Amino acid sequence: xxxxxxxxxxxxxxxxxxxxxxxxxxxxxxxxxxxxxxxxxxxxxxxxxxxxxxxxxxxxxxxxxxxxxxxxxxxxxxxxxxxxxxxxxxxxxxxxxxxxxxxx
Length: 104
Description:
Elements: E1 4-6, H1 17-24, E2 35-37, H2 43-46, H3 52-65, H4 79-100
Parallel strand pairs: 1-2
């Protein structure tokens, strides 16, 4: 009912890349809503008084500048895209529940 989330793409070794790409393309381990890929700051990056805005920019720059990931669907890369998708799914669920409510 919810999308899958893969994390820590910066730890993927070259030999593991194809397996990750197959998951991201919903080929292996398919889910109804597919997968999203996020990258959060490493501990040493967090120590630099990182703001949320800077963390999102680092994540965005990581995906755009990384040849391992920048060929994937950009709508599925990054925590803002995941948050948007979850928000839409939650709205749909609420609407479906509301439409099923007997008091309507």
